[in-house]
Amino acid sequence: MPRIIGVDIPENKRLEISLTYIYGIGRHLAMQVISKLNLDPGKKAKDLTQDEIARINSLLQSEYVVEGDCRRQTQNDIKRLISINSYRGQRHRLGLPCRGQRTRTNSRTRKGRKKTVANKKK
User: Fold this and answer.
1) Which domains are seen in the chain, by residue range?
2) Of 26, 49, 50, 94, whose CA is between 20 and 30 Å from 81?
3) Using an 8 Å Cβ cutoff, are 30 and 60 in contact?
4) CA gap 110, 107 in Å, rounded
5) Residue 103's pLDDT is what?
């Protein structure tokens, strides 16, 4: 398995899909990286040479915020929302959805206050 920025990417998938296994890289960003390095997006990840892997590593570390830095940045954003006591911060603190999803039914699988669910009548 090719290893990019400390992440094993799947070798039997195309390069544009394999790069999305790195935290902080979606399809659009993967295509940008591939086009900047003039790589073939349809190429399988196992067919990458060591030189191409090194070029991808250096580009991602120098120009993009990915993996550990991206996770740290996201956690800091959530901590900031909690500390300023915003609505979204309160929802994060309670473990409830904070982007407007309904909570009457779908959010029961999440954390938060326990709700009793009525038994099904026979």
Assistant:
1) 3-67 (1.10.8.50), 85-122 (4.10.910.10)
2) 26
3) no
4) 5
5) 83
| Distances, alpha carbon 63 to alpha carbons 29, 58, 66, 76, 87, in Å | 11, 9, 9, 20, 33
Name the nearest CA neighbour of 14 among 59, 56, 49, 46: 46
Q: Which residue has the tokens 């300023």?
A: 84
What is the rounded distance in angstroms from the CA atom of residue 113 to the CA atom of residue 57?
Answer: 44
Place of tokens 């191409």: 52
Q: Model-level pTM?
A: 0.74
Distances (CA, A) of 96 to 40, 75, 90, 99, 111: 42, 16, 9, 9, 7
Where would I find the beta strands (DSSP E) of the chain? 3-4, 7-8
What digits encode the pLDDT tens for the residues 53-90? 999 999 998 999 988 889 999 999 999 999 999 999 99
